[in-house]
Amino acid sequence: MRVTVGHLEEFPAGALKRITVDGLPPLVIGNADGTVFCLKDECNHGEANLSEGDLCGFELLCPLHSGSFDVRSGKAIKRPAKRPQVRFDVEIDDDGTVHVRSDEGPDAARDEEVAVRVTAGRHEL
Ligand code: FES
């Protein structure tokens, strides 16, 4: 499934946004020094939204216990986070349209129109 989530202008450097897409868990999409990334928003250590955390370079810090993840790979960097965070591929068209690709969802093999809701994270610029 490939889902259009917005335009590059909506994801300025340092921004974190929570995005809800039908058929997927809530996502955090952000821009780390020009690299747009997408991870599952709920931290795999507890019940915190990473979209409310802090972005420091390519490191996303969880707001609850300060565990952290590398946004490029989802790999856990700092404890108490230990397991990699679920990561989704981001594709950007020449015109700046941003898409998230997922193998999850009810019909993952098909590109389709699905409802997308964007919620500004704490660090929207
Ligand atoms: S809930 Fe994220 S590190 Fe604990």
TrEMBL record:
Residues covered by the Rieske domain: 3-99
One Pfam entry name: Rieske
Alphabetical UniProt keywords: 2Fe-2S, Iron, Iron-sulfur, Metal-binding
Superkingdom of the source species: Bacteria
Keyword Metal-binding appears in the UniProt entry: yes
Record-linked InterPro entries: Rieske_2Fe-2S, Rieske_2Fe-2S_sf
SUPFAM superfamilies named in the record: ISP domain
Classification via PANTHER family: 3-PHENYLPROPIONATE_CINNAMIC ACID DIOXYGENASE FERREDOXIN SUBUNIT (PTHR21496:SF23), FERREDOXIN-RELATED (PTHR21496)
The protein, known as: Rieske domain-containing protein
Protein's organism: Nocardioides aquiterrae
Lineage, top ranks: Bacteria, Bacillati, Actinomycetota, Actinomycetes, Propionibacteriales
